[in-house]
Design brief:
about 525 residues; mainly alpha; Sodium/glucose cotransporter; two-stranded antiparallel sheet; 20 helices; 2 strands; about 75% helix
């Protein structure tokens, strides 16, 4: 039966290679073409690309922890992700991001904030923040998919990581954003189909026996201590509000904030709006993305909700191996089961590869366009810029590959620390700077400093200096706090500091595209 799985993966690899090669012809020299596809990507393609990048293979791995710790209540993570991470982002930030990015003639989030607030701080420090934290984040995505390959194929972890890296580097180097976006559409379709199959297969599995029976069986699970150190039982796991278990509520709230609110400040998500062909198409994209998201995220989370029906106790591999190993129990060794399992593997492969594409392109832009071209080699031609970005792409893939091969076994911690640092730095300046004319340069800088400081210092310095607080100084909690505090700090500091030049603000919010670029901002 294993030949079925190999055929599925082989077909996927061939498809990716073909799209990559075909997209090479459409990439012209210059950062705008390589990083944004020439701002010509349609709303449906962008919505699939956004959803596919947003939902990584880490979601499948994390579904085990979510279900083990919070049971059916963990489904809040899926649904709030759709509300805050997709519908809110598209509806509130989409149009303004697209308009302002073209008006300011920028291609990356650090440069966007540099021009918006008239300070080199965001371009220089922002590119360094991305450079430092995007590599471990990318390594976490590599690792999550490799767990799946090891469980389903028996393929050694190292081989799986290397194969992924080579494939990602190939189509990103030759095709850039346009290749990634085209592949994301197919990957998004696979993820939607896989999400439906996964949800149905989980519910009809003998261990679950349907939704009502599964919930009844879940409610009969005995008392235990979850991976977060909170004592709970089946009755609480089978209740959406945990029957008022305060410890469980305090565990899931920061986790949901990390996964649903923090992505709004991640560079690879913001630039999706920069690339869409027209601001008028944002509404279509918002609807498509939300529908895609609810189907995929519900399907991916559902196996985790019933994970206690498949395991009496936590296995040696911890929560990371729960869902990957559980899939073999759900689908069995029959032909139909193996076909479905192969499709689910493609779901995780698609989710991971699309996320990797977004991460690598954002990283390459930060290092190549923002830092090297911005401060080291300012006179690069368009062709040289493209070659530089391609070289940076290879560098980031190799760097993440090396870190993933170390197999540190801390996927969630690495991802949440990276999320917290990057989102803490960018989130408040991006949201307030895009939506409002009132934020000041000092307010934006104060917001970014407070965010990254909280994300990094709480799980490191604070944890070591105050041992009594150690149980609360997790990377998840730090990430949640790092995305909330700057939203308060920035308006407070802005209220007492010098305003950004009125001419710059008027220019940034002007929708007349006959005159664009920072060089055309009137002097005052």
């Amino acid at each position: 039966m294993s030949v079925i799985k190999y055929l599925f993966v082989a077909a996927y690899v061939i498809f990716v290679l073909v799209i990559g090669l075909r997209s090479k012809k459409e990439v012209t020299d210059g950062g705008d073409s390589y990083l944004l596809g020439g701002r010509s990507i349609g709303p449906v393609v962008t919505s699939f690309s956004f959803a596919a990048t947003y939902i990584s293979g880490v979601c499948m791995v994390n579904a085990g922890k979510i279900g083990w710790d919070w049971g059916i209540g963990g489904m809040w993570n899926a649904w709030i992700n759709v509300i805050l991470g997709m519908a809110f982002t598209w509806g509130l930030l989409g149009v303004r991001s697209r308009v302002m990015s073209e008006k300011l003639d920028v291609q990356t989030l650090p440069d966007y904030l540099r021009v918006r607030f008239n300070t080199q701080y965001f371009k220089l420090i922002g590119s360094l923040v991305i450079f430092v934290f995007m590599i471990p984040y990318t390594a976490a995505v590599f690792s999550s998919l490799s767990y799946m390959f090891k469980s389903v194929f028996g393929l050694p972890y190292e081989y799986a990581v290397i194969c992924m890296a080579v494939l990602a580097a190939f189509y990103l180097v030759i095709g850039g954003y346009k290749a990634a976006a085209k592949i994301d559409v197919a990957q998004g379709v696979v993820m939607v189909g896989g999400g439906v199959i996964l949800a149905v297969a989980t519910l009809i599995a003998p261990q679950v026996g349907g939704l009502s029976t599964g919930l009844q069986r879940l409610s009969e699970v005995g008392t235990f201590v979850n991976s977060s150190g909170v004592e709970t039982n089946g009755a609480e796991l089978a209740n959406f509000f945990f029957k008022g278990n305060w410890g469980m509520l305090m565990g899931i709230i920061p986790f949901v904030l990390m996964t649903s609110w923090a992505p709004n400040g991640l560079p690879q998500m913001a630039t999706k709006f920069f690339a869409i062909s027209s601001p008028k198409q944002i509404k279509i994209g918002a609807i498509c993305c939300s529908v895609i998201g609810i189907v995929i995220l519900t399907g991916v989370h559902l196996p985790g909700m019933f994970v206690h029906l498949f395991y009496e106790e936590l296995p040696a591999g911890g929560t990371n191996v729960l869902v990957p190993d559980m899939l073999n129990m759900i689908f069995g060794q029959g032909v139909v089961g193996q076909l479905c399992l192969s499709f689910i593997l493609l779901l995780v492969l698609s989710a991971s590869m699309s996320t990797l594409a977004g991460l690598v392109l954002a990283s390459s832009a930060a290092l190549g366009s923002d830092f090297i071209k911005g401060y080291v080699k300012k006179d690069l031609s368009e062709k040289q810029t493209t070659r530089l970005l391609q070289g940076c792409t290879v560098f980031f893939v190799v760097a993440a590959l090396v870190l993933a091969l170390l197999n540190l076994g801390v996927i969630s911690s690495i991802q949440s620390l990276a999320w917290g640092a990057m989102s803490g730095f960018f989130l408040a300046p991006y949201i307030y700077g895009t939506l409002g004319k009132w934020p000041t340069k000092a307010g934006a800088i104060a917001g970014s400093v407070s965010g990254i400081a909280i994300a990094v210092l709480i799980p490191t310095l604070v944890k070591s200096v105050f041992p009594g607080l150690a149980p609360y100084c997790t990377t998840v909690n730090a990430c949640a706090i790092a995305t909330i505090v700057p939203m308060i700090v920035m308006p407070v500091v802005s209220a007492f500091t010098k305003k950004v030049s009125p001419a710059r603000v008027r220019f940034a919010f002007d929708e007349d595209m006959s005159v664009v670029g920072e060089a055309n901002i009137p002097a005052e």
